[in-house]
Amino acid sequence: MTDKQLSDFIKRGREVLAIEEQGLAAIRKDLDLNFAKAVEMLAGCKGRVIITGLGKSGLVGRKIAATMSSTGTPSFFLHPVEGAHGDLGMVRPDDVVIAISNSGETDELNSLLPAIRSFETKIISITSNSKSTMGYLSDIVIESKVPCEACSHGLAPTSSTTAALALGDALAVCLMDHKDFNSIDFKKFHPGGTLGRRLTLCISELMHTDNVPSTPDSSPLSEALSILDKGKLGLVALTSKENKLSGVITDGDVRRLVCSGKLNPAGPAFEVMAKNPLRVTPDMSAAQALDLMEAKEITVLPVVDEEGKISGMIHLHDLLGKGRLKFAENTRG
């Protein structure tokens, strides 16, 4: 291929991505109370969430079902044609069905919905046309109308399927938040995944033990700041005469001291340290430490032994397997 052809492909690729971004912006703007009501209905579901759709919408539905199942919302995909030939027997009154069709006029799907309604099963539809047959047969309609498809002829489902997929992700995440689905829950549903395996490890297997940024709390603040900078973890631990953790100073603490005009490098570090900071022990699980970090919105913690002496440091990225992050926020408890 010529350089011009390669350049044209890049240009066209960017155009497609821009069109899909516009589609997502449109559905984000149009998101209304129906979306919230759908989350409420799904959160109150006593059975399973059943996703159904045909063609490209069906492929999107399979992904949404997989995402929901892996994040605490029991879900499975029902092919509308198979449903009409016996698989409808899997549907129960306490289930909730999410039907996906851009036009809302997919015959195979719409012929199935009245049978589902006869079970008194609730139906949520994701469609660009709330006044369609599917919309009429649904209890709640989430509109997914995009300005246009990215396809040059406006025929191949592109922007519309991206929009439906994003709405499914939005529903799944809202349900996660509602159910307080956390990292330990994630580990239960992903025992074979890299993160799942990592979260079963103990802090002692992941923590930093070499050149741990620490200094006596009687040290000048200037020395503590120098160690904080060299440690590149965003935190310096301060220790008592017995070498027990007495406090910490973080990047955030330094920023606040500078902004308030109270930074005195010559003064003792203990005057500005955060006393009795959060900490973890070497035998704690990575999942427990991750939950603590998420709850307190912090990214690094000191690790202490049974006597309260510094054993190491653990960073959020150590837990997630992403390597060392060089900036951290407050660790005040």
Give the gist of this structure.
InterPro entries: CBS_dom, CBS_dom_sf, GutQ/KpsF_isomerases, KdsD/KpsF-type, SIS_dom, SIS_dom_sf, SIS_Kpsf. This protein is of the alpha/beta class and 333 residues long.
Q: How would you describe this protein?
A:
- By secondary structure, the chain is of the alpha/beta class.
- It has two domains: 3-181, Glucose-6-phosphate isomerase like protein, domain 1 (Rossmann fold, 3-Layer(aba) Sandwich), CATH 3.40.50; 199-320, CBS-domain (Roll), CATH 3.10.580.
- It is built from 14 helices and eleven strands.
- The strands form three sheets. It has a five-stranded parallel beta sheet. It has a four-stranded mixed beta sheet with strand order 6-7-8-9. It has a two-stranded antiparallel sheet with strand order 10-11.
- The protein is elongated and about 80 Å long.
- The N and C termini lie far apart (60 Å).
- Residues 38-181 form the SIS domain.
- One of its GO terms (biological process) is carbohydrate metabolic process.
- Pfam families: CBS, SIS.
Keywords:
333 residues, alpha/beta, Rossmann fold, CBS-domain, 2 domains, five-stranded parallel β-sheet, four-stranded mixed β-sheet, elongated, disordered C terminus
Structural class: alpha/beta
Architecture (CATH level 2) name of the largest domain = 3-Layer(aba) Sandwich
CATH fold label of the largest domain: Rossmann fold
Q: Look at the structure and give the mean pLDDT.
A: 87
What is the ordering of alpha helices and beta strands?
HHEHEHEHHEHEHHHEHEEHEHEEH
Helix fraction?
40-55%
The CATH homology group name of the largest domain: Glucose-6-phosphate isomerase like protein, domain 1
What is the straight-line distance between the termini?
60 Å
Q: How is the largest sheet built, in terms of strand order?
A: 2-1-3-4-5
How many structural domains does the protein architecture include? 2
General shape: elongated
Q: Give me the number of helical elements.
A: 14
- Poorly predicted ranges: 323-333
What's the CATH class of the largest domain, please? Alpha Beta
Subunit arrangement of the protein: single chain
Determine the strand fraction and express it as a percent band.
15-25%
Task: Tell me how many strands there are.
Answer: 11
The rounded Rg comes to: 27 Å
Could you give a short account of the major beta sheet? 5 strands, parallel
